[in-house]
Amino acid sequence: MENNTTQALVADMEQIRHHLGIEQWLLFGGSWGSTLSLVYAQTHPERCLGLILRGIFLCRPEEIRWFYQDGANHVFPDYWEDFLHPIPAAERGDLLAAYYRRLSGDDEVARMAAAKAWATWEGRTSTLHPSKPLVEHFADPYNALALARIESHFFHHDSFLEPNQILRHSERLQGIPGTLVQGRYDLVCPMQNAWELSHAWSDAQLQIVPDAGHSAFEPGIVDALIHATDDFASQMG
Fold first, then answer.
1. d(CA 107, CA 105)
2. From the candidates 159, 170, 214, 215, which is the catalytic residue?
3. Crossing angle for the helix pair 132-139 and 141-156, nearest 10 degrees?
4. In the annotation, is 129 catalytic?
5. C-alpha span between 98 and 87 (Å, rounded)
6. Annotated catalytic, 94?
7. Active site residue 186
8. Of 128, 159, 190, which residue sits at a domain end?
């Protein structure tokens, strides 16, 4: 976790671009990848040919609260019960802080239990219809520990962003074409995020997939992403 910040990741992207000798590129990312792409584009707009983004995540406190404190739990109370299990009742008033303490602590057993519960919650809620293979992938110990520790690290530090940074600086995206692919029933990153971004960014087109949740592997999401990529290739060819 040391020196792992949003700004450092943007710098990493620039170093890769420079190393490969790429003058401009198309950014493609989903969920946290949409966040990072947007921050990069606002920092280096002259390097962006366009953006294809899925499951828009603006990393605002209300979005974190929705998924990790009070919101999505009303739709998935059965899954939520398992998410609460590693945390004593006295600490449940701030679940992000409680999880962060365990995921960054020295107690290996507590750290692993927290990681599995954290990752399983995300895997179970990411698709419109249950996907056992996806949940098993999220719950794999190696994947779960990496996912939970990195996510909790960023969220505990407000993703190293200023309040509402992406929407407040939306003018920096003007002139960059974008496609926003959003599942109607995305309960990890609700559609309100994509809706607000599309209104703040006039060059972005919002494509709502009517029968999908959050995962990039849902058929409607895959189809929309492929079409968006093909459209950009045709325009730039």
1. 6
2. 214
3. 70
4. no
5. 7
6. no
7. yes
8. 159
DSSP for residue 24: S
- Out of 31, 34, 37, 159, pick the active-site residue: 31
| Helix (H), strand (E) at residue 179 | strand 178-183
Same domain, 132 and 76: yes
Answer for the pair 97, 156: CB distance below 8 angstroms, yes or no.
Answer: yes
Of 132, 159, 186, at which residue does a domain stop? 159
Percent of the chain whose pLDDT exceeds 70: 100
Residue 128 φ then ψ, to 5°: -65, -45
Q: What is the pLDDT, as a whole number, of residue 3?
A: 93
Q: What is the rounded CA–CA span in Å between residue 191 and residue 228?
A: 18
Domain assignment present for residue 119? The answer is yes
- Nearest 5 degrees, angle CA 141-CA 77-CA 112? 20
**How large is the average pLDDT for residues 180-188?**
98
* pLDDT computed for residue 119 by the predictor: 98
Q: Which of the residues 152, 186, 198, 215 is marked catalytic?
A: 186
The 3-state DSSP composition of the chain as helix, strand, coil percent (nearest 5) reads 60, 10, 30
Q: How far is CA 37 from CA 32, 53, 69, 94, 185, in A?
A: 9, 8, 26, 29, 23
Beta bridge partners of 183: 209
Please give the pLDDT value at position 206: 98
Residue 82 identity:
D
3-state secondary structure of 104: coil
Confidence grade of residue 11 (pLDDT, cut at 50, 70, 90):
very high
pLDDT band of 237, cuts 50, 70, 90: confident
Contact status, residue 119 vs residue 165, Cβ threshold 8 Å: no
